[in-house]
Design brief:
A hairpin with a 6-residue loop joins strand 2 (68-81) and strand 3. The chain folds into 4 domains: 1-54 and 155-185, no CATH class; 55-151, Nucleic acid-binding proteins (OB fold (Dihydrolipoamide Acetyltransferase, E2P), Beta Barrel); 265-294 and 310-435, P-loop containing nucleotide triphosphate hydrolases (Rossmann fold, 3-Layer(aba) Sandwich), CATH 3.40.50.300; 467-625, 3-Layer(aba) Sandwich (Rossmann fold). Helix 8 (209-217) crosses helix 9 (222-254) and helix 11 (281-294) runs parallel beside helix 12. It contains 24 helices and 21 strands. The strands form 4 sheets. The protein has a 7-stranded parallel β-sheet with strand order 11-12-10-13-14-9-15, sandwiched between helices. The chain has a 6-stranded parallel β-sheet with strand order 16-21-20-17-19-18, with helices on both faces. The chain is α/β, with parallel strands linked by helices. It is 39% helix and 17% strand. The structure holds adenosine-5'-diphosphate and magnesium ion (MG).
């Protein structure tokens, strides 16, 4: 990349202490507690909420669980209760409606006791809860009503994130508003120049930057605020996409790879004589994408997403055949022995009758067998190697590794993946990462925005979606009855229990108890039950799995160890116990173990009667859809972007204003426009892109956490 012209020094680069009203002590606090060091940081720490000061709820009309409310009323009571460590401060607020609201504090009691005055009128804000039939707010924001009314712009107030320490030192919501006003008083429009090119501003009808920043902090009304937010969201996402796409361009120009020009005998013969089914449209599309990648002479770094059962293995195999056709070896790596073994078996079955040597390697392959594999790998007699991460250990040497496939990407660490790169000289192998964890589009575009992503969004035909129902605990009998019915038809059942690490001992105990109960309900010899859990020795676990797979046992009681990869098409019913203790993506993965055969399958979600709002929503999502992408979207809404599997390592998801759960549309437009712009002016050299280029160079200094997948 060209070195961008160094951006002019701006008033925004000055330290916050430069501002009137901020002494060294406050500056230190801002810097330590909120990472606000410069005036620019202060400007870009946006409010997370706005209070419409003209709107008050009447206490008598407040419903429990309605969320945050703002009320105005008289503090009628203030008491300290309890003693020692369990102290709390309680107050009562009564408004014109005649009804009252409890206020409760557990921290900062002394300060509050001195500050709050019984008999005074306050404006109170916070989320309402119902407790013992009474409405209450814990740790409400309190402001004297008289004072609130005299504030400038008292109609629509920004609220900033804060800490108790900051509040005590006068950097509470009101203090921050003062600072922001002081800041804007010092800035001239020239300090906030437009950075987006005029044609984009016009086309997308965006608010000018200076106006948007001002309105974001001090909005005159909702309408202007909305327009300001849209502008700044677009800017944030647009800059990020520009940077990601630039990185991609750079990578593609620097990291050479083998060009697999030919599609040859292996691929064609397989396609003609061995492919056991018609590929789905999605599989064909993805193979085409991969084939194009492999032919470019640039190292492929592609993420392949596809729901459980969407047929990724076949896509992987056919990609490996492309490598073979060009005289290279290929490997496929899976996170567990069982999964790797399963891949090995299905791939061997697929290529049966072709003169092709497929080998399996894991830590459990030792001695002579291991030595032989390593030798044949080094002299090129093995075409395809499948295994666990034993594959990337030092003694494993390929003759010429052209393609490495990694299944279930999020289980491998970055370091492990980096080892793969070194497995071949002079060029690193092409990399295809396969994941069954659907990542919402918006996350994929950010967390993996500099990579190529392929999606298999279609299941092979003839799959019947799993019928999912929710039962509460007291209908257990009915559930056991359903298991019996399925077994009577010759089918098998999974019963899954949660196992949470911190609670492992207790959970194992619960699993043992549950096993005793199951033994009584499903007595031998009519029924045989397998049990597997993560604390078992691998051999015992594998043995139990095998017994179930062979049909020697009809019921598999398990913890989440069966989550990934186990394939028993005859299992048609899964009961998940304590469903509320599982996350959405985990539930989805688990459910993917049934519905693998031709028979209709069922998933029963057992839960206790009392459920949190979030648990209820998770369960409803599972009942409503089997589409992994929809489930991932729901997960994103419920938990936020940082918690979604496969994205934890990304620092890109901490955004200032954009919200990946809700701003998908803006993101799509931003990526699109960024692509367009770079295709015309990759180095941002045109005059209308100068400001943008300068800003980008600066903005990006503060962001880390990019990476390639491998
Ligand atoms: P994934 O790894 O994506 O979860 P698999 O590759 O294990 O899925 O495929 C699931 C099952 O579907 C396998 O039994 C596989 O043989 C079968 N399958 C894959 N592609 C097709 C297809 N196009 N038509 C029919 N069956 C398919
Ligand atoms: Mg798979």
């Amino acid at each position: 990349m060209p070195t961008p012209p160094s951006p002019a020094v701006s008033v925004l680069d000055r330290p916050v202490a430069f501002l009137k009203g901020i002494g060294p002590a406050k500056a230190k606090l801002l810097s330590e507690d909120l990472q606000i060091h410069s005036l620019g940081d202060l400007l870009h720490a946006y409010p997370f909420r706005y209070v419409d000061r003209t709107q008050f709820h009447r206490i008598i009309e407040i419903m429990p669980n309605q969320g945050a409310v703002q009320v105005k009323g008289k503090l009628t009571v203030l008491n300290v209760r309890g003693d020692g460590r369990k102290m709390r401060l309680t107050g009562r607020l009564r408004d014109d409606s005649g009804a009252a609201l409890e206020l409760v504090w557990f921290r900062g009691i002394n300060v509050l006791q001195n500050m709050l005055v019984v008999g005074e009128e306050y404006v109170v804000y916070g989320p309402v809860q119902e407790f013992n039939g009474r409405l209450s707010i814990t740790h409400p924001e309190m402001e004297l009503a008289a004072k609130a009314a005299t504030e400038e712009a008292a109609t629509f107030e920004p609220v900033y994130s804060s800490t108790e320490k900051l509040n005590r030192r006068g950097l509470d919501a009101r203090g921050r508003r003062k600072l922001i006003r002081a800041l804007f008083a010092q800035l001239s429009p020239a300090d906030l120049p437009e950075i987006l090119p005029p044609y984009l501003m016009e086309e997308l009808r965006l608010m000018p930057r200076a106006k948007a920043l001002h309105a974001l902090h001090l909005p005159p009304n909702q309408e202007v605020l909305d327009a300001a937010r849209r502008r700044m969201k677009f800017e944030e996402l647009f800059l990020l996409q520009l940077r990601l796409l630039q990185l991609k361009l750079v990578r593609e120009s620097q990291i050479a790879g083998y060009a697999f020009g030919a599609i040859g005998e292996y691929f064609n013969r397989f396609y003609r004589d061995h492919l056991p089914f018609e590929l789905t449209g999605a599989q064909k599309r993805v193979l085409k994408e991969i084939r194009q990648d492999l032919g470019r002479g640039i190292q492929m770094n592609r993420l392949l997403q596809g729901d459980v059962g969407s047929g990724k293995t076949m896509v992987g195999l056919m990609s490996m055949l492309m490598a073979l056709d060009n005289g290279f070896q290929a490997c496929m790596m899976a996170p567990t022995e069982i999964l790797a073994q399963q891949h090995y078996e299905s791939i061997q079955e697929y290529v049966e009758g072709m003169e092709l040597r497929v080998a399996f390697l894991s830590g459990s392959i030792k001695g002579k067998a291991r030595k032989e594999i390593l030798e044949d790998l080094a002299n090129g007699e093995i075409h395809i190697l499948i295994g666990t991460h034993a594959l990337i250990e030092a003694p494993v040497v390929f003759q010429n590794l052209g393609l490495a496939i990694i299944d279930e990407q999020h289980r491998f660490g970055v370091k492990q993946r980096a080892k793969l790169w070194k497995k071949n000289k002079p060029y690193p192998p092409h990399i295809l990462v396969m994941t069954a964890t659907p990542i919402p589009r918006t996350l994929a575009m950010t967390a993996y925005g500099d990579l190529d992503v392929s999606v298999i969004d279609e299941l092979p035909p003839g799959r019947k979606p799993v019928t999912t129902v929710h039962f509460t605990e007291h209908r257990r009998e009915r559930v056991f009855g359903r298991i019996r019915e399925e077994i009577a038809k010759g089918r098998q059942a999974y019963v899954v229990y949660p196992l949470i690490e911190e609670n492992e001992k207790l959970d194992l105990l619960a699993l043992e108890e549950a096993y005793d109960e199951m033994l009584q309900r499903f007595p031998r010899p009519d029924y045989q039950i397998s049990v597997v859990h993560g604390k078992m020795k691998a051999e015992v676990k594998d043995q139990e799995m095998a017994r179930f797979k062979n049909g020697d046992t009809q019921i598999m009681m398990a913890t989440t160890v069966i989550e990934v990869g186990v394939n028993v098409p005859n299992a048609t019913i899964m009961v998940i116990v304590h469903t509320e203790r599982f996350g959405l993506s985990q539930l989805h993965q688990l459910r993917g173990r049934v519905g693998r055969g031709a028979e209709e399958s069922f998933c029963i979600l057992l839960s206790s009667v009392k459920l949190s709002k979030e648990s209820r929503e998770r369960i409803k999502t599972m009942v409503d859809t089997t589409d992994g992408f929809k489930i991932a979207e729901a997960d994103l809404r419920l938990r936020g972007p940082g918690m979604i599997d496969g994205t934890q390592q990304s620092g890109l998801l901490q955004m200032r204003i954009a919200d990946l759960a809700n701003d998908g549309k803006i993101l799509g437009v931003a990526r699109d426009r960024a692509k367009n712009l770079l295709s015309q002016d990759p180095r941002l050299q045109r005059p209308e892109h100068h400001a943008l280029g300068n800003h980008l160079a600066k903005y990006m200094q503060g962001i880390k956490g990019w990476g390639r997948i491998s």
